Amino acid sequence: MLRDFLQDLFEGRPVQVGYPQPLATEAKAAAASFLVEFEQSYRLELPGEAPAFDPQVGVWSAEVFYLAASLAIHRDVSEVTLHTLLSALPPDRSNPDVHYSVDLTMRFLPSLVKLSKSAAADDPLVKRLMQWAVCWPLSSVGILGVSKVDASPLRTSPVLMRLYADRVISYGDQTRLEDQSLAEEIRRALGDYPELCVRVAGPLAIGQA
């Protein structure tokens, strides 16, 4: 189920989730194999040498994202069960490899937050998703209401900073512009074409005499 969920998610097809429950070891192993294969192709499209992909971290991200998606659909689950299912500790966020590995699935977090908020904006699931949004700034661009994030782990990787800038430009997310390293990356990305994203070019005075 997890492998099929990931394949549909990554290929832009409607996804299906089962009832929220712990995933079998076999399901996670199949997901790990899929993630490793997918990532090998995914990195070829990136603007430079991506950090190393950690399959264990990738599976953690995929598993909790899948369970959160299932919880977003099955609203009859108790808060205790929700916290139990999502209790696995996140990996070390100080490592850029971890941010890259998590992001392979968590890049879809904005869509999951939007879906979850449409049912109840202040329920425990939304609160957990917003905690992830703070922990994983690369994955949470475009989510409204995210408190100040620490993107310093991304700065050691030019590829992650480029991805970060591209997403801020794509979403027109002005909430991230106080990060001076990111602002400089956005200036380089927009160059002489501030009209590509006026929402971020304006506050950064890109293209202004």
Topology:
Layout: H1 2-10, H2 25-42, H3 55-73, H4 79-85, H5 96-106, H6 109-119, H7 124-135, H8 158-171, H9 180-190, H10 198-201
In short:
The chain has 209 residues and is mainly α.
What does this protein look like?
The chain is mostly helical and 209 residues long. The protein has one domain. It has 10 helices and no strands. The protein has helices at residues 2-10, 25-42, 55-73, 79-85, 96-106, 109-119, 124-135, 158-171, 180-190, 198-201. Helix 1 packs parallel to helix 2 (25-42), helix 2 crosses helix 3 (55-73) and helix 6 packs antiparallel against helix 7 (124-135). The chain starts with a helix and ends in an 8-residue tail after the last helix.
Instruction: Count the beta strands.
Output: 0
Structural class: mainly alpha
Q: Which consecutive residue ranges, at least 5 long each, have pLDDT under 50?
A: none
Categorize the overall geometry. Answer: globular
Counted up, domains total 1
Topology as H/E string?
HHHHHHHHHH
**Strand percentage, roughly?**
under 5%
- Our measurement of the CA-to-CA distance between the termini, rounded to an integer number of angstroms, reads 55 Å
What's the tally of helices? 10
Name the average pLDDT: 92
Helix-residue proportion: 55-70%
Instruction: State Rg.
Output: 18 Å
The main β sheet shows up as: none
Descriptors for this entry?
mainly alpha; 0% strand; 209 residues; 10 helices; 56% helix
